[in-house]
Amino acid sequence: MSPSPNLPRIQSGVRQVEQYLSKRFENGDIDSLSVAVATSTGSLFERNYGAMRGNESAYSPLTHSHSMYRIVFVAKLFSALEGHPRTERKIVMVRAHSLFFEISLRLHYYPRDDPVTKYFPELTYRLDGLKPDSRLRTVEEAPITLFQLASHMSGLGRDWPPGTVHNWPRDMQGGGPPQTNALPFPDNPSLFRATAGRHLTSPPFAHPAYSNMGTALLGLALMEANRRASSDPSSEPSTYAELVQRDVFEPLGMNGSYFLATEENNHLIVIPSLGPEVADQDFLDATNPAAGQFSSLADTIIFLRMRPVHDFEEDDWTSMGFMWEIIKAQDSNGRLRKIYWRLGAMLGYHTALAIHPGTSYGVSVLMVGHYPDAAKLV
């Protein structure tokens, strides 16, 4: 049972968190900050600080819970939600506005062990070079599956096509994701060309390696799987952005989550003083699953209230969920507790979503500005 926000100790905690955040915001290196602590029954804490447009803070509207931030790599959680194996027309229970209601997600069944080549027969990747003296395996013998893409176990590199890191090992300039590595966001054909021309970091399912490339390919594969499972493929979404909008955002009532800045939503988009151009960029369908999404504090609260992870509080072996990173943090009694989180950062945008599954509360931090450490605020 989630605690009531009216409990004295909860109210005391809320005051402490508010004092901490207010003091931190006064340092002046954060343009806009939206923070919530939520349980399955509602928000215990929800606050917004600063202006929506960092370069014109004196005249900008104030940030609110429906203001939209680029959540960058936190978008992977929603890619995994789109592809989480389930049967079509499964009923999902969601608690919202203190009431239970049922929603029907129009999701087909995506077998997690399907090879990606089932949906993209033209996909190739290099298995040579890992053990030059061993027999070279074929793509059929070492398939990359949807499950491997969703769990960073595919062996695909982090960001393909990669930039050229000219000054390695003196610095990393020219590395990282598109734009940061001086390359444009890839279209679908360039994604497949990059996969065909580069060695895997390890054989599929051999070793975990964080991969934006893998999540991008997952999004494209889910779109193709959805089309093939339909009795009328021509009526199905033709982009990943349209697919997740139909299957996830609309059924859950997430009306502040999109992939592009448009005339219709421009008044809601938070723009940082550092890297304001990121707000207007089109990440294209090959990057949207990994990093292209906008979301609001209100929408992330809906996601946190779904309790998208379960864990028995006292042990270290029962875990399930999406693309979480897991850390250990001490509670007030000095005991280590697992915290599941996803972090995202790109120039002026910094995001963190975290869940403490043992007691079923979540934290959302959406932030723009020069201060980068959303994880510390969590």
Automatic annotation (TrEMBL):
Top-level lineage group: Eukaryota
Gene3D superfamilies: DD-peptidase/beta-lactamase superfamily
InterPro entries for this protein: Beta-lactam-related, Beta-lactam/transpept-like, Beta-lactamase-like_AB/R
Residue ranges the record marks as coiled coil: none
Pfam families on file: Beta-lactamase (PF00144)
Span of domain Beta-lactamase-related: 18-372
SUPFAM superfamilies, per the entry: beta-lactamase/transpeptidase-like
Assigned protein family: Belongs to the beta-lactamase family.
Stated name of the protein: Beta-lactamase/transpeptidase-like protein
Species annotation: Obba rivulosa
